[in-house]
Amino acid sequence: MGKPNLIENSGMFFTLSKIFWVFAQPLNALCLLALLGLLIRLFWRQAGQGIMNAALILILVLGILPIGPLMLAWLERQYPAPHALPANVDGIIVLGGAFETHLSKTHNQIVANDQVDRMFCFVNLAQRYPQARLVFSGGAGDIINPEAMESDDARAFFKLAGLTRDIIYEERSRNTYENALYTQDIVKPKQGENWIVTTSAYHMPRTVGIFEKLNWHIIPYACDPKTDGTYALDNRMPGVTGNFGMMNTALKEILGSIVYYLTGKSAFILPPGPLPSSDPR
Question: What is the 3-state secondary structure (H, E, C) of 9-38?
């Protein structure tokens, strides 16, 4: 399969996806539902009160039950980090998303978020494979601050980490599809080459689907786990904000996979299972 001809629509897709997610986040959506109920209650008391009650019940149920952690654990189980890697690796790619670039520029220091583990994985893999080509893929993914370039933080981070090798910076991308597309245009991988892609474990299913759509059979190296990968409930402390936070992350990935598939950007919605390229050669 060739590349879908979607580059000209990528700007609109990026903007719409960002706006949609503001309203689609579960807690945001339920608060908006409660507000709608309050407005309706001004004219139709019983109907409006019913909507408000439903929103409150859903907030309590989704906040107390560990639905978000279970969803995130399911995503992270799809592509665990391989226990063995090929002896020869031609390239290693890390996807952006680990820095709060606008805050970094504001405070003149690196500000990382809870996805920074993927950067440590990248440094570790780079040390393990000194001959591999290294790629950081991430541009301006902030719709409010489009001038904030994540590659600036990445350069500073690698310097602090002591990674002095040449690194290719793909700086045009604003989402995962563009990460894969623009990186492929830069490195031009050859058939049979071993390329490792590292990103957060929950993000790997959507990532693999995109690379497969571009006919680039990468080796997925998941890192930055947010759960222990099990469905056991006895080791989970209840927390409303934590449950909703994990649900936000998981739902965004699942909806993203569906939308990417329907718009021709991904090879599948649900992961088909481990890829042949993830086995040692």
Answer: HHHHHHHHHHHHHHHHCHHHHHHHHHHHHH
Q: Are 117 and 76 in contact (CB under 8 A)?
A: no
Determine contact, residues 11/172, Cβ cutoff 8 Å.
Answer: no
- CATH H superfamily, domain 7-20+67-226+239-278: HUPs (3.40.50.620)
Q: Residue 202: how many CB atoms within 10 A of its CB?
A: 28
d(CA 223, CA 201): 5
Which amino acid makes up residue 267?
A: A
Distance CA 278, CA 76 (A): 16
Give the pLDDT of the chain (281 residues) as one tens digit per residue. 444 444 445 666 667 776 877 788 899 999 999 999 999 999 999 999 999 999 999 999 999 888 999 999 999 999 987 778 999 999 999 999 999 998 998 899 999 999 999 999 999 999 999 999 999 999 875 666 667 789 999 999 999 999 999 999 999 999 999 999 999 999 999 999 999 999 999 999 999 999 999 999 999 999 999 998 888 766 666 688 889 999 999 999 999 999 999 999 999 998 775 554 443 33
Cβ within 8 Å of residue 37, ≥6 positions away: 48, 49, 50, 51, 52, 53, 54, 55
Residue 75: φ, ψ to 5°: -65, -45
